[in-house]
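question for whoever is on the cluster today: can someone run the full assembly for these? two chains, 664 residues total. i dont have access anymore since they changed the login thing
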Amino acid sequence: MKKLISAAVLSAALATPALADTTKVGFIYIGPVGDFGWTAGHDRARQELQGHFGDAVETNIVENVDYGADAERVMTQMALSGTDMIFAASFGYGPDVNAVAGNFPNVAFQHATGYIQEHDNISLYDARFYEGRAVLGHIAGKMTETNTIGYIASYPIPAVVSGINSAYLHAKAVNPDVNFRIIWTYSWFDPALEADAAETLIEQGADVIMQHTDSTAAVRVAEDAGVMAFGQASDMVEFGPTAHLSAIVDRWAPYYISRVQALKDGTWEAQNSWMGFAEGVIEMAPWNDRIPTELQEEADALIAAISAGEYHPFTGPINRQDGTPWLADGEVADDGALATMDFYVEGITSDFPN
Amino acid sequence: MILGSINPAVLMAALMVAATPILLAAIGELVVEKSGVLNLGVEGMMIMGACVGFIVAVNSGSPFIGFIGAALGGMALSLLFALLTQALMTNQVASGLALTLFGLGLTALLGQKYVGITPPRTPKLDLGVLSDIPFLGRAVFSHDIVVYLTIALVGAVWWFLKYSRAGMILRAVGENHDAAHGLGYHVKRVRVLAIMFGGACAGLGGAYLSLIRVPQWTEGMTVGAGWIALALVVFASWRPWRAMAGAYLFGGVVVLQLNLQAAGVRIPVEYLSMSPYLITIAVLVVISSGKARGSLNAPGSLNRPFHASS
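^ ran it for u. tokens below:
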């Protein structure tokens, strides 16, 4: 046995110099790669990254990693085993990434949707989901017949809150009678709970379901109930061919490839990137045929205007839920305000969660 | 606040559906614990049932055969636990935890090709006139057969433990395995059978999620239902009907908070999500203190390994 082990160690030692050009990239995921949503989106990008660099990159994943001690342990383990770059693909890893990054200044950390950047080896990256939500809101506002839109939300963090506000504002713009019903699940991934939430919303009159949670359960329930739904983070059309109108699809691959390339070139440095339609990080899944042609064209035009920077989804006048002014007429929300958004806009009837 | 939009009958109906998977798993675990074995692998056996049940149902085209497959799948995993704890005398807590991890990993592998597939429909049971009764028709008599069979199973377990000879032997084994052994009962055989029953029930609970409640296969889809079931057994102080009341209470909390949120009421969801565990802790504190101790009702040999030589 001892011989075997020493042989393994020896071969590993011999193999190392030959692999010196190989960049080791680790990924930690909050959910399973088979969630067909958020985590699947990141893993699609990882596979593209692997395909792009071939043998020059070695990728490793650890899925279903909880925030806190588990995440710290996994990232520490990755760093100790020679990983050059770690992608932490969930908001809640913030404190863990910062704790581990301090111990490993030579490892490049990439934290998705985060906001804590205490060390210069941490880059933050995020997608402007609210841009996609504006398009979904526009379509939902026109498609709903009951004027009630159900929204399954995960945690009341700025990315989710700005998504709700953006969707509401754009639904309201095309349908003044529209009403949002919002359920917070306090989980990113819980198929049974998301299915129950969708059923509850449909029971209370919603005929379009939006979700900011990662499983496909709500689309499935919507299909069965004969109402409409939007997928999340990935194209979920196969779970509801009739119900699924579209989805905001995350496309992290170009960004991942550019970051790994920068690391290889020695030009990697800490950044804070917030990318949307313009950078191709978010795109819409193909429109369902049941969306009328002119509405599809409106949606395409909206995407084009946002991409070109001609239109910002948060353009005043916009009031907060309590009626106090937030943005003056023509004023555009700055990124800082969007990245810390913690209130509903005027017109949403639900109480904001604590 | 638009409370008028909440329909109590629908609420009751949703509550029964939400409670069924955890009740199935809990009633199985209750029997296991009554025999003196603590199997913390409920989550693993549930996900096994969810996955195997789904695969069998899709391939056979019959949800009924799917449920049988789920029971067998859960049972197969529980046999592994039985082998470890009863034959090899390993620590029950560690083996149970390992079983959960193993189940989650194995099903992620087994179910890979089944993501995105729609399982065959489980029809609602046609109860004729009963379904037309106002309120009760929608609330109680509008479900699939599994909901009713689960209630029947609770009754059967209650009767079995309280009145049947085999049930009394099982309790004797759980209360004091040395005494039961001295009386000539096969402690290990009883325990292995109980563990298998627990595995089958957990498997059925998992399949209820993947075949009826969600219905689709996604890895890791049980998300803690097995742990709730474990908490439920303690909450129920090892009594079948209390387990059912507890399951309906836990299911009710979930369904009610969803409805209140959709109606626009601000409620502390975090605390409600914690409540099953908090209630369980509270019950543990109350029943294990002072005078109420007698009603604690925990099997005397719970989590104690048995070897005939000891």
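summary bc i know u wont read the tokens: The CA atoms of residues 6 and 12 of chain A lie 10 Å apart. Residues 129-249+282-339 of chain A form a domain with the Rossmann fold fold (CATH 3.40.50.2300).
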